[in-house]
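Attaching the record inline, Q. Sequence:
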Amino acid sequence: MAENVLPNLIRHVPSGIYYARLRVEGKLICKSLKAYVLSAAKLRPGDFEKPERQLAASASRFVNSRRLKQHRDTIIMRCLNRFPNFRS
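Structure, as predicted:
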């Protein structure tokens, strides 16, 4: 059972704990704010939002660099297959 308090803030009714909801790169992330009071819960979502966004950005950079390396390797292999005397 959850109750929407604010657009990105949810309160679990039985326990009274507040949770932050955040969408990063299309994925919904819910994390406990470890707060029982609304005024304290309003201040805490920013504490975990920045690291989540940085983590997603670094992960996308890793994927992109991996794709570039794979693309580079396929180009080199094509050159080697088409021109046997070609060495990089």
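The two ends are 62 Å apart (CA to CA). Strands lie at 2-6, 9-12, 18-24, 27-32.

More tomorrow.
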